[in-house]
Amino acid sequence: MGAAAAVWPFLRPLPFARAATQRDLQFRALWKGVSIGEHSVAFHRDGERLTVDTHIDIRAKVLFFTVFRLKHDAQEVWQSGRLVSVTSTTERDGARLRVSGGAAPEGFRIVGGDGPFLAPAHLLTTNSLWDSRIVRESRLMDVQYGGEVGLVARLLGPEQVDTPQGPVAASRYQLITPHYAGSVFYDGAQRWVKALLESKGETIEYALAA
């Protein structure tokens, strides 16, 4: 088999992630090679019910000036692959935000700073980088600000990613939303293993910590 055959498996579209196989994720956030915080995702499954807790605490400073600040805590409850409830609090560059939402007969009702918004029931959330289905989506529920946002995703190709367990082959996707953009990497088991996220002209790297 030639080089093209070796690369091809990583260029094929990722199938939907199976949340049941997800392990907790712990990333170090790096800016210019310096650790500036963390992003963790914890999973708890009870039958078809999956609770996902996201914690982000990132602060980048130059001398006494804060260049970038994000603190975000969210709990999402999923039932059979669909979101049934969410609560979140966010501190972003001095702004304090709260979002909550729950499944409704006609969709998903999410409430943010601009009031309630009825989103389609099947949408993933802006926190769903842990779920490789996100690269198939064009709209997301915004769990930091509320409402719904657009998403553009495209496959960039295969790359090797260093992890605490050694290098792994991964597929790199470019993602663009109104609030973040950059690249996200999934290994052959559809596990999120790296990200390069852009904000205010700066790139923050997410590196697996365990």
Structure commentary:
This protein has one domain (16-208). The protein is globular. It has 210 residues and is mostly beta strands. The model is unreliable at 1-20 (pLDDT under 50). 29% of the residues are buried. It is built from one helix and 15 strands, in the order αβββββββββββββββ. Helices cover 4% and strands 63% of the residues. The protein has one helix at residues 3-11; strands at 25-31, 34-46, 49-62, 65-79, 82-92, 95-104, 107-112, 115-119, 139-141, 148-150, 152-163, 166-176, 181-187, 192-199, 202-208.
What's the topology here?
Blueprint: H1 3-11, E1 25-31, E2 34-46, E3 49-62, E4 65-79, E5 82-92, E6 95-104, E7 107-112, E8 115-119, E9 139-141, E10 148-150, E11 152-163, E12 166-176, E13 181-187, E14 192-199, E15 202-208
Antiparallel strand pairs: 1-2, 1-15, 2-3, 3-4, 4-5, 5-6, 6-7, 7-8, 9-10, 11-12, 12-13, 13-14, 14-15
Sequence of secondary-structure elements = HEEEEEEEEEEEEEEE
**Strand portion, in percent?**
over 45%
The total number of structural domains is: 1
Kindly report the spatial arrangement of strands forming the biggest sheet. 8-7-6-5-4-3-2-1-15-14-13-12-11
Number of strands: 15
Q: How much helix, percentage-wise, in residues?
A: under 10%
Low-confidence stretches: 1-20
Total number of helical segments? Answer: 1
Main sheet makeup: 13 strands, antiparallel
Approximate shape: globular
Give the termini separation: 34 Å
